[in-house]
Amino acid sequence: MINVRHRVQFMLDHHWAPGHMSEYLDDELASPQRRRMERHAGECPECGAVLRSLGRMLAVLHQLPIGNDAPDLANAVRRRLRE
Amino acid sequence: MMGASSAERELVARARAGDEDAFAELVDAHADRVYGALRRFGLDADEADEVAQEVFLRAWRGLPRFEQRAKLSTWLYRIAFNEAQRRLSRRPPPPAPSTADGDDAVAVLPEAADLGPEARALDHEFELTLARALAELPPEWRAAVILRDLEGLSTEEAAGAAGVRPAAFKSRLHRGRMQLRALLEPYLGLQES
Fold it and tell me: Which residue does chain B place closest to A26, by CA atoms?
């Protein structure tokens, strides 16, 4: 009985987890949902791997510099304001 | 303007009163971010230059309607996003991938091994690979990833810049991230060995 209940819960979590991984990594899940994600990622190799690789990708993206050396926009905009 | 410095608030107030010098200072302060975002939205250098000028001209004209409770940078991102969408929508559709054997888009991205051991994150090669991967995403998903993960806006700010409610934005963001993860996986070696 416990096994059946656990398997049903596993499948429910397995259906739920992929759609909430971003919120988990952004720390936007409430505590019960965070625990649900962590429990499932710990017992499901497939979801655990996706969650970890998503986290690694975000860590790389978040390190990239913001902005890009722009041409002299201020003067160009000023000229166009006077046209 | 929540989060804006008092110096920026002062410049905005002067610009709203018609002071072009104050507005030029605001342009200087935000030019790199706006231009960088436009490049990441998929515009080439010339397009980004032209569209960035248009963004700031629209901002100048729109200053009287600018809601002071929003951050100026978020408002500029919103204008930039709309202008980029407008420009991209005028482009002819890209040719179909020439992968005759039916490989998916991942196959067109370079593998890390092709670029040498130094070609990892934080370098120019990775930026090019990332740009190609971002170009594979639907525009709304791409914009969500750029605003949140590359430009560093909060979810609320990024949703405001994209012009959607946070719940809708989160959905776009998650879909975009998952597709980007699949595209970058061979390059970044995201899979566990």
Answer: B155
